[in-house]
């Protein structure tokens, strides 16, 4: 876990594509896309079917590692409106136990906006904590400090003839976008115009590595 300061608050960035807020005891995750594989299977495209269980394994591990008392999921937690209903029994029971034990907040994203019911926790459009707005998609015109997801940012580099792609945070003075945590999520280049427009001037890709945070200006 690597220290990351944002909007006057101290966070810890995790290489596994999550953010921990020690003062709140909260683990922030984004774009889990539970049941993405089963959604594709309905249309004849078969992907490894255990993506939800693998994503939940990762969350459970991060909760244990950080000692989090809360999980705030910043939207697109399910790949589609019927995703929660397609969870297999074992994964549903594990998720229900976790949401019952923790202060779990589901922030609604564009993929899960029509979901009738989430497995436990509280469902909200957005939240404001200690002056920081938590929402799914960054709002470029909102001057408030904001943490969001939606874009699945990845940093792509060419190093010594090799192409390297890694999930990353993207931040500026008032915006912080989390990488996607879901097991089957792809990514958008961190320097893409849509991300830079959402984040505004001073956009940087932030990559937690070992004991430090690498910063790459996005121009």
If you had to describe this structure to a student in words, what would you say it looks like?
This protein is an alpha/beta fold and 219 residues long. The chain has one domain (2-217): Purple Acid Phosphatase, chain A, domain 2 (4-Layer Sandwich). The chain is 21% helix and 33% strand. It is built from five helices and 17 strands. The protein has helices spanning 36-41, 51-66, 83-86, 89-101, 193-199, and strands at residues 2-6, 9-14, 18-21, 26-29, 70-73, 103-107, 122-124, 127-129, 132-134, 146-148, 153-159, 162-167, 169-171, 175-177, 188-189, 204-209, 212-217. A seven-stranded mixed beta sheet has the order 1-2-3-4-5-6-7, covered by helices on one side. Strands 8-9-10-14-13-16-17 form a seven-stranded mixed beta sheet, covered by helices on one side. Strands 12-11-15 form a three-stranded mixed beta sheet, with no helix packed on it. Helix 2 packs parallel to helix 4 (89-101). The mean pLDDT is 89. Residues 27-116 form the Calcineurin-like phosphoesterase domain. It holds the Pfam family Metallophos. InterPro entries: Calcineurin-like_PHP (IPR004843), Metallo-depent_PP-like (IPR029052), PdeM-like (IPR026336), Pesterase_MJ0037-like (IPR024173). It comes from Sphingobium wenxiniae (strain DSM 21828 / CGMCC 1.7748 / JZ-1).
